[in-house]
Amino acid sequence: xxxxxxLLWFRRDLRLHDLPALLDAAQEDSEVLACYVLDPRLHASSxxxxxxxxxxxxxxxxxxxxxxxxxxxxxxxxxIPALAKAIDASAVHVSGDFSPYGKRRDAAVRDALxxxxxxxxxxxxxxxxxxxxxDDGTPYKVFTPYFRAWREHGWRAPxxxxxxxxxxxxxxDVGRAAKATDxxxxxxxxxxxxxxxxxxxxxxxxxxxxxxxxxxxxxxxxIEGISRMSAHLKFGAIHPRTMAxxxxxxxxxxxxxxxxxxxxxxxxxxxxxxxxxWWNWNKAxxxxxxxxxxxxxxxxxxxxxxxxxxxxVDAGMRQLAESGFMHNRVRMITASFLVKDxxxxxxxxxxxFLEQLVDGDMASNQHGWQWAAGCGTDAAPYFRVFNPDTQxxxxxxxxxxxxRWVPEYGSDDYPEPMVDHSAERKEALRRYEAIR
Length: 436
Fold this sequence. Notes:
By secondary structure, the protein is mainly alpha-helical. It has helices at residues 20-25, 41-45, 48-64, 76-86, 100-113, 143-153, 196-209, 214-217, 230-234, 240-244, 251-272, 294-305, 311-323, 328-341, 346-356, 362-373, 388-395, 400-405, 421-435; strands at 6-10, 31-38, 70-73, 92-94, 118-120, 167-168.
């Protein structure tokens, strides 16, 4: 006799391989209803490209399950209990979510489920927030010691799951409570395929062709030396544990592992200091002078449009606007320019990135911006102000990246620099000195 059915609720884990929640949902031969809830709050917090990735990833799961994925629309605290009761589920199984929003949503769902347990298994990270702490139990504030402890802590092997790990319930058998909806399409254009099938293929290609040189190439926006796995990780189309299992010794693989550790670190910071999602982690920076007047807003629009007159900055901003992606080195350069040359609030830039980026992740985006602004954990020293021209010469030495995204560079149509970098650097230092 089979056990009562279970509900597998997908969120930031849009995959079927290496999914601990699926292992738990299917134990004892329970039949499993796979579902995703299109919460209207998603539309308020996700740019169109992230929504398009989401929808494409859901289609990929549905195809792998021969159509046996129920997509429904509404608030999770209403739809999940209704579905659980409709199939008489013994439990609802999920991957843990450590974002401030995710924890609030899950608390509401847990309350609404009543006697039906909401079981968490795993997380989107190699090491979940809260697992690695200092000897006194407090969270790390600096990456390097966190990284050492993180490596010593280690992580489990990938979970052995896949499309055939469960007997899947046909959504058509759920009845009126299913309230199934079609997966939307045509929201935005993506510059890379989305979903688990594409993620696994992209990772294999990166391992075969680029990982060996990653340590040297990862800072070069002018060459195709990076993995482009960030969006896949953001949506959980592949688990970092799957990737870490393939990373052997050598400079390239170990440099990549360090980047996965940074992802875990920023998730831990956000979990420990949820205020830092929109406020300075270092509260001393709450007093720093920033420009927010009408002229500041005009400068912000110039930055967004990629018409600052600084080629590497403009190339990055246009890549972002046109593709929904920006090379990480260029993210640092454009962020430094907004904060330290234009003296605008880092939150303005962080919000624009989240709207545009396919891989827009709250923990990594917000704390990457705070690193550039000098107000986060492990922040760049206050006196470190990127010179965009020097950065461009160093990391785009032949100008290939700039030429690709700013074809008018070098002609009369290209604008003069909107600010004097040397003067604005001094002004940034003056403002920082005032709050020391």
